[in-house]
Amino acid sequence: MQNFALMVEYKIEEKHREEYLKLLGQLRLLNSGLQLYEGNEQPGLFVEIWPVASEEEAAACKEERLDGRSPWKPISGWTVGGPDRIHAWTFKPILPLN
Question: Which of 1, 10, 13, 63 could be cross-linked to 86 through a Cys-Cys bond (beta carbons 3.0 to 4.6 Å apart)?
Answer without folding.
Answer: 10
